[in-house]
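Quick question about two entries, pasted in order.
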Amino acid sequence: MPLIALTGGIASGKSTIAARLAEHGAVIVDADRIVRDVQAPGSPVLDELAAAFGDDVIAEDGSLNRVALGAKVFGDRTQLDRLNAIVHPAVRDESARRFAAAFAADADAVVVYDVPLLVEARADDPWDLIVVADAPADLRARRLVELRGLTEDEARARLASQVSDDDRRALADVVIDTSVSLDRTRAQTDALWERVRPR
């Protein structure tokens, strides 16, 4: 019953790896989805965000106005820390609940936590394995421009706002090179599955 953390910088190919592991039968727990779930309309987290950052971070339909919140925290370390102090504990509790549910349903499950902010928030958790999706910053910037429609400057700003690739690699038990073809990325992921799959 391994619990695996899968991380990587923006546009590093993490989703490709997660999808391949899911095809093999891994249970994927998506940190980004949990963030959205714990910030759902009517949630305690959303109430805390409004109290901390102002009612304008709540949209007319009662959902989180991510653009308004982003404008308040982007580039401001103090405000970002304040945001993280509200969101991270809720995400930690909900992810632990989902891990436990997966193992309760199948004691031999391979549970993969797809988590962008591992280095920033969850590095010291008791993972059985840390897997890093890795591609050079120039390639990831190009992917952001070509696949997500960002400008070159926007792409560079996104990359610059994240921890360094060296910091991620320093935590890795397994590094999957995603700068190669899709087939080779999948082959590396298949090799990882052979290592962790239930016997």
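Here is the second entry:
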Amino acid sequence: MVDDEERVLTPEEMLRVIEEQSHATTKWLHGDPRLLYVPWGVAWLLGFSALFLHYGLDGRPYLAITQMQAVGVLLAAMLVAGTVSAYGIVKMNKLVRGDTSARGAMYGYAWLAGMVLVTIIAIRLSPLLPAAERGLLWAGGSLLVVALLYMLGGAIWLNWPMFFIGGWTAGVNALGVLLGTGLHALLTAVLLGGGFIAAGLWLWRRQRG
């Protein structure tokens, strides 16, 4: 009598095991969408809503909130989002070794370098611009880095949803910059904030399936 552990798998059983392992590997390499997308969606929904209430659509605030207070809400929310996302990336990289892990580390450094560079550029150019345009410089520059790095991440890990989300971010950001400060804040809050939350939850449900 042959033990279950020693039984040779049929071709159908081997195919099923391969598919299960492939699905699990893909899930690990792509990370938890709730950690990679939802925190940024919440941060942008809160932060850019505060900026929209400050700027309004006609240049008059809808709420008695200063630009610095609105920016403070955005930066605090983004700090929390960055921390949560970093945890997700670290958790993802613990499951892999070698080249994939190295790519993840370099990708993380690219995020840091991009954000530092945008900050330096914005600090240098902000005094030359009107108050509203300063906010647009900070917001548009930051979202440019986010868009390009999401597209780059999608290319690195062959993750099409991540690539398309980066492209969506770039498109919304470009349209908002062309339309002006108030509409940029509104579009970012609704289409990127709400969109990232919806995308993260949808991808998580699809990943579980």
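Reply: The helical segments are 11-30, 33-36, 38-55, 67-93, 99-125, 131-156, 160-179, 181-208. The chain has eight helices and no strands. Hope that helps.
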